[in-house]
User: Fold these one by one.
Assistant:
Number 1:
Amino acid sequence: MADRRRLIVVSNRGPVTYGTDEHGELVARRGAGGLVTALAPLVTRHDVTWIASAMSQEERELAASGPVEEQAGDGSRYRLRLVAHAPEAYRLYYDTIANPVLWFVQHGLWDWMVDPRADLTVAWRDGYVAVNRAFADAVVQELDRDPGAAVLFQDYHLYIAPRLVRDRRPEAVLSHFVHIPWVGPAAWDVLPSEIVRTIHDGLFANDAVAFHTERWRSAFVESCGAFLGTAAAEGPLVTACPISVDPEEFEQLARRDDVRRRTDDLFPARPERVILRVDRTDPAKNAIRGFRAFGRLLERRADLRGKVGMFALLHPSRLSIPEYEAYAAEVERTAAEINERYGTLEWTPVTLDLRDDFLLSVAAYRDYDVLLVNSIKDGLNLVAKEAPLVNARDGVLVLSREAGAFDELEAWVVPVDPFDVENQADALEHALELPLELRRSWLASIRAQVHAHDLDAWVAAQLAVLDRASTMRA
Amino acid sequence: MADRRRLIVVSNRGPVTYGTDEHGELVARRGAGGLVTALAPLVTRHDVTWIASAMSQEERELAASGPVEEQAGDGSRYRLRLVAHAPEAYRLYYDTIANPVLWFVQHGLWDWMVDPRADLTVAWRDGYVAVNRAFADAVVQELDRDPGAAVLFQDYHLYIAPRLVRDRRPEAVLSHFVHIPWVGPAAWDVLPSEIVRTIHDGLFANDAVAFHTERWRSAFVESCGAFLGTAAAEGPLVTACPISVDPEEFEQLARRDDVRRRTDDLFPARPERVILRVDRTDPAKNAIRGFRAFGRLLERRADLRGKVGMFALLHPSRLSIPEYEAYAAEVERTAAEINERYGTLEWTPVTLDLRDDFLLSVAAYRDYDVLLVNSIKDGLNLVAKEAPLVNARDGVLVLSREAGAFDELEAWVVPVDPFDVENQADALEHALELPLELRRSWLASIRAQVHAHDLDAWVAAQLAVLDRASTMRA
């Protein structure tokens, strides 16, 4: 208990979502998303207050009655403070700024010809800034209750809250983990300079800012130099440490009967070799170029037709945003085009599976020959760590050089350039022909890496950074 | 006559175009485009063979009968060799590769989410490479006739011809001027790596490669390092020298009666103040964000409504390419939107003029109060040099930081960031309010700069580079 800490975790989504059951009773369910899973260990080992947005009518009512005590899956207790936002402010914050603007800019998806979002000024002020202010108010109230607690802001929804807290509580220990890529000054230049400056200034108000890889870290240092004109020494401690998963959790999942049963369901007529991808239908995940690469491979290697199938488990995502809707339609169109061109009565080249079922993903993880992760950019990509843990076919990972996980795993993967369709076709061909011995050795190395650098190690590293930052402040 | 040189100029478009008159006789007309104008002085002072694509049926027939002797406007004679290409090869080269792919990549217009041109391999091989090979064949034949002649390749249509010539004539003196921006490795990464390597290798085969500004020059050195892995010292002499205009030509034009008459035609009801832009309807010119910026200015400064008008002389361009057609439609839609929102019966905020009439542009150059050049990227931008030469209203130049001309003129312009609409609104407001004394002094400084660094000086600099390159080779 000696190193039990007092932490205030701040993220847009909370660790539970509340709804009502068939009797009209309020029930809590574990929240979705990798971030919430990743931060769960904190609750077990420390005294945590978690601040998150109220997402539903039930949560909005709960927010009004103040913080509640919640219980995690393992019985540990934590304090949950939900922040209710005006629905229009939340819509501007989430659907106009955070996802299409910040996510697009930071994943190299911005349309430079015509801005996808033309008039940002109002959405920024009445959405992003307003919601960040509400979060900052909640953090200040929690700090007033416990001034010694350290604050852990999470991700791109909350870039400016740290500045808003810092201005009111200069002595607070504030840290931020950015889970998506950071990009250099030229990429940020597409946004109004005042918005860009405010984002950098907001993060700069932390004692510590962390990213998944050295690449994103150094891009942040560079863009702070460009937009704030400050030397890194004056600002926060900026570190890089890749997030990870709990290997035991995945190994247990893979042994479950309901996972094994799903394998048959997944591949009703399994081809000799399976190329798998598991993503959201996010343009950053680059499914279309992956399908085209598979088409190119079938074009040049007629002998593979009928023997190899590409299975894409794609969870529809953010369809309220027009670009996502258009992209998802284009994904389906591209798959259909390849199937029409190369498919036969007995064999479908590309199978799209849009069911959002985590256990189905785990079943697929067990059973691929080649796993394709060809993201345009990716903060880390957890699939690249999860799937090899449970794969039972000596499967090969084909991994984008632009995924954060590449820096850790590159010695044991077939690398791909996300924009180069020919290169991806070459990589798939190479992966399918890799000798068994090498496949086994690579898979074992990836597993050893993930075991040695697991989620516990990541959490410990984040707390160590907090200690260094607090010491520097003291 | 002592320094009269033997030159082989190679450009896609030639200095004349041939057609037939009403009697069916072949007639030559001066070719359009800034590049041809810029290179015209070479013909007067040197022995020039000009190699260009045959564009029409007449030119194709002319090409078949071999090189012809032509006469320039001032009576000087030069040799013209037209190269006929198969129509489908030319279409792939020009409409698929050179304009939408190379131009888009080098102007920051590429759609990173879904490639605007998905299958480049065939168009590259059967279009761009085939046409470059035909140019290289013609250059080799001309070099065999006169091995001491120096070759001057022009622009992005001919990146790989130098390598194809070099492999067959190792001793030839080859140079290349790239008239559009060069971009760093990350921007090139959107294309297949083999194409990118071939482009860089093609330019690397020259003795000298030149750009309009130091920025494009250093991006080229950087991308050669990334894609060829070679130190700059091993490759061509790489220089930067901005192209210019002939000041006397523009001063004479501005005095012409038919130019003066066009002023009335241009502004039937001239508002107090005129903001002008003169461009092709190319997405790189950024007309839409310019209109939006003017809309923002009218929103915040109601006192300017009715008093200021934006006049956009936009020459429709490359409409056979779908992205250009869509962009041109969006340009019109955006202008209409602003006119609907702010216009009155007496006053139209934005006037679009799509007539392609050079004398009309010169008339407009004389008569603006503010000239807006807000290009996303621009190799140089000649309008920024031409218009101030003849302006008669102490007009202010608002100039994109991303135009090559910015490096020369920045001390005497209001700078703008091309993606930042608010910043452009601020700049227009600032330009309209600039005191007379400063406007006069800035305009005089721009004119002095263009006079001191005119087209003759640029041509002389290019020939001096050729001399250095020949000496290094000897």
Number 2:
Amino acid sequence: MIMKNYVFKGNICYSESREELCITENGYAVCEDGRCAGVYDTLPKEYETLPCYNYEDKIIIPGLVDLHVHAPQYAFRGMGMDLELIDWLNTHTFVEEARYGDLEYAGEAYDIFAEDLKNSATTRACIFATIHTQATLLLMEKLEETGIKAYVGKVNMDRNSPEYLCEESAEKSEKDTEEWLLKSQGFKNIKPVLTPRFTPSCTDELLERLSGLQKKYGLPVQSHLSENLDEIDWVKELCPGTSHYGETYDRYGLFGNSCPTIMAHCVHCGEEETELMRRQGVFIAHCPESNANLSSGVAPVKRYLEKGMKVGLGTDVAAGSSLSVFKAMALAVQCSKLRWRLYDQSVVPLTMEEVFFMATKGGGEFFGNVGSFEEGYEFDAVVLDDSMLRHPRKLSAKERLERLIYLADERCIAAKFVDGQVIFRES
Amino acid sequence: MIMKNYVFKGNICYSESREELCITENGYAVCEDGRCAGVYDTLPKEYETLPCYNYEDKIIIPGLVDLHVHAPQYAFRGMGMDLELIDWLNTHTFVEEARYGDLEYAGEAYDIFAEDLKNSATTRACIFATIHTQATLLLMEKLEETGIKAYVGKVNMDRNSPEYLCEESAEKSEKDTEEWLLKSQGFKNIKPVLTPRFTPSCTDELLERLSGLQKKYGLPVQSHLSENLDEIDWVKELCPGTSHYGETYDRYGLFGNSCPTIMAHCVHCGEEETELMRRQGVFIAHCPESNANLSSGVAPVKRYLEKGMKVGLGTDVAAGSSLSVFKAMALAVQCSKLRWRLYDQSVVPLTMEEVFFMATKGGGEFFGNVGSFEEGYEFDAVVLDDSMLRHPRKLSAKERLERLIYLADERCIAAKFVDGQVIFRES
């Protein structure tokens, strides 16, 4: 039997908005039936009988959300970082992804990915697999066992891809996708998400067919948008008559509104594209490390936030080297400062509060009431032990949280809970 | 008795130049009397009788060199990252540095710094202390015990500093510095380096007096140069008649030539200043994380390298959050890509080979023949165990080295040697 009613004691930190970081030192967070029933300075009488996890002086945060990561690319993280997007795809990425036609290789690689993701501070993720149906199902099985909640997508690509990684037709791609969808209904924690790789690798016919599946099954969608300048030019050539990259998805109804959508990157979006995303509630997965590693640039995230758009963070492994959303937070601040200094002083740098918001409640919104300890939120929690970051004087919880953003790794994670259930905890 | 004659077996990686990364897989590196006697595919007969450390499939690199780090600032690493240089100094840095007047606090803080530096991959460092003579000597004692080789500087500052952290006169600053110099002669691994903080906090009289000490004792010098635009404007105001920031040091003979000099940052150097540094052999400590965190910008490092200038890496704690020179390498590549994309396409990004060179032989040159396994180099070595970075297929040593640059932390360090002597090793 799984216990979903209990109290956490510790230094509780969560975002209400991008400006409001709420910190209750030596406080209590209550979990009732897997939902947060509030954060308190003093524990209300009615909860005194619940079991209490006393995390003492540790820092307790909502689980982190990774809105964009490629599971099969984890195998070459931190390697081959000398190319821009299109060359990088052709030289490293497609070659590696093709290996996942081999289920034995896929099993070995996905074991590593799932285990490392489990041991990270990430509680929710939106994940690209490959075109391979069987390997994608295998990834979903392995993730299901971790207890993490995630969307996983079998990738669609039927053009401009090497023969060894190109689906034979739009029709076949649709058929395989539907077969995969039907087989992925049995999971509890893992849900399917439609995943056209990006416009350059999807014919109009394919996007139209995927649109049919989207409506038939009410699926969410994830893809890439306006990451790299050459890519954007290429899309312009491939899709005459569209006025921006986003329109190439929107004309098939795969760009927000009734179709919950995540677009990764959005580094070089123009005004019209940005406005369409805002109006239709498209989620932006900001991937700062990836955008630096592939020399893509830096997305104007502060502007997106100021417009009230939906923004979360993505690690984008393997264009990003690491599964750590902490690293993504630190780099989001750092890259926003360089963008401001080197390129555009009209967009001021991101704050620590803003990146923490994006890593929790901002990305979490894609999953519903996720990423905060406000009442009614699903109880995803990570307990952080920063004792290895030694220090000669007493620090506030806020100082310690900022330091963790810059310096935390798995060694700092003392416990992790998703939707009220324990994923692991130190004995 | 200390053994300084032995053989290492493993995958040996080192730089000959910024373009030439030498890798001998399953090779041998020989240490004779603390110096490298060459790297071999097959062990020459003459060395067969030496004891052999068999590191099997591990990666062996020269120790890393940190050309710029502030020991007292380690206490607030990863905090207060929302300001630019001058405000950051006044708000966070000076307040913390003032605490080192209290020897008890200094002892506690420097214990942490020295121990963490010992456990890092750094074998050589150039370190700023504070204005306090006793605390600086205490830092030197603690570092001496680690076995790391380092230059440490008592900081000089006699103007534009808060009263609680300002030396009372140039004369007193000189007197204290000479007293400190005389007391720091007894160390074996740790040497003193003259450390005028930066021009804004040093009067002309102070620089002149320090110049006298430099000549009298033949000392090296470290300081800061052209880090931040406001700082540069301020120096212009403070030093009328100088044509660039570098000249404010050069006119007192504290800028290369017979005075071995490290200048940290060099983000915004003009042509004349750059040319003077090149001609006089000034070392540049490139500190990419610091320059991002304080919104300073990105130094045109590739250009410096192409001119044949002397460049190493600095972590610049606490404007940089971490003592990890691996992190500095990764960020040096990443920031150079953003500089290229956002600001100046005439300076192409740094390569993995170049940042590895800077982190080893480039910075090592300040210490003599240090930072390589070429014959005659002092035997500084770090043995890296990347088994925690799991992977489904076999990788080359070069791929593994690149991945370690992005992902290594202390858990990957299996052993560390400085000048032929073991600092630590896994049992």
